[in-house]
Design goal:
flat, 29% helix
Length: 70
């Protein structure tokens, strides 16, 4: 994750980073969480939908019980 964060910083400004859920070490979605911590940026996991309007991103995800959280 540190190498990935360094590569992202080297490439310059970013507005959003998408990562995958699965990895060779298990199905724990750890890369995105660790990357966000290293880069000191907000993080959300298991996103079902993204909306963009007026320079604002809204992520939606399904939560336990079938509800949707924004």
């Amino acid at each position: 994750e540190k190498a990935l964060a360094a590569a992202i910083k080297k490439n310059g400004d970013f507005h959003m980073i998408f990562t995958g859920k699965l990895g060779i070490d298990g199905n724990v979605s750890a890369t995105s969480q660790m990357l966000a911590e290293i880069l000191a940026i907000p993080h959300v996991s298991v996103v079902n939908a993204m909306e963009y309007s007026a320079d604002k991103f809204t992520a939606k995800r399904e939560i336990e019980g079938g509800g949707v959280e924004s």
